[in-house]
Amino acid sequence: MPSFHPSAVAWMRTHHGVISRHRLLELGVTRSAIEAMLLAAELVCVHEGVYRHALWPATLEAECAAVCAADPTLVICCGGATALWNFRGCGRIGLHVTTTSTGHLFTTGPKLHRCRAMPSAHVFERSDGIRVTSPARTMFDISRHVPWRSLESAIEQGLRRGQFDVPTLYEVGRQLCRRGRAGSALFAAVITSRPAWRRPVDSHPELILRTLLDDVGVHLRPQVSLRLPNGQTIHPDLGDPAVGFYIEIDDHEWHSGRLASTYDDQRDRQGRLGGGWIERVSTDEITRSAPACSVSSGRPTGGRHLGRSRPAEPVETDKVQNQGGGGGSDWVASSQPAMPASTISRGTVTPPAP
Hints:
This protein is an alpha+beta fold. The chain has helices spanning 6-13, 21-26, 31-39, 60-70, 78-85, 135-142, 148-161, 166-176, 184-192, 204-215, 252-255, 258-273, 283-297; strands at 18-20, 43-47, 50-53, 75-77, 95-99, 111-114, 123-125, 131-133, 221-222, 226-227, 233-234, 238-240, 245-250, 277-282. Helix 6 crosses helix 8.
């Protein structure tokens, strides 16, 4: 950019090299100067009236910024939102945008969705000009693109980070879920199968192992508190305090070093001194031989019968009214595990008590 356009340079530095024609004129760049920069290939036309400086790479953020600059009603959603929020397991969805208007059309680029309503609470506007769906709204949007386990894993990650809580997910479902809307059945089934009081899992391998252990009749809770004889409180990945059995899931990236191994051994010894038993499972065991790993991890140890005394989970049979509009039917929420999608029916729904 020529040195006599410092305001335009400053704008591009904070907006991934993207700027609109309207913004250039507003910053004092003349129409002839814009045309000269286009002819010199200093500016690259991304969308109609939206440019990226040739020195900036064509990153995901730059593409998102260009889309948002092309139409003020467009919001990044689905795969683009999961990439910007860095949610796991959603990399294959691709960049999608949503709008409530009938304005801008893309001949190439992101896939466009239209929705009836986009509440302001569902949109997060970044300082770099990118508008993206909120983390909770993003969970609903991706439910049309991913299977159960991927959606569940992303929800657990968001809960773990504190990006949303269970009542917020129920509120999103109350506003958006309706019969015939893509993703409604899966979203409702996943969030209602999860007790609100349960701690979120810490990783995707942890979710896989817990699910497989449930399948063989061993029910362990994630991130339970365990107080060691030395006074330290730890939170094993999975465990059942009633029988004193716990599982730690080790990633080689974090647990293969000498100091990390020594620390793990010390914690395990403290656990045994306190009457507990800690079993360690690597992420490779889970991803490569998950069924065998779940069976071996779930066998009774030292005469203990694992998972036989599963704590009672609160069951909610109330209903939450859908106000998503359009006269669609409402969705029924229950915290019972593995609720089938067919339970979505007419009624009113309230989230389970914390």
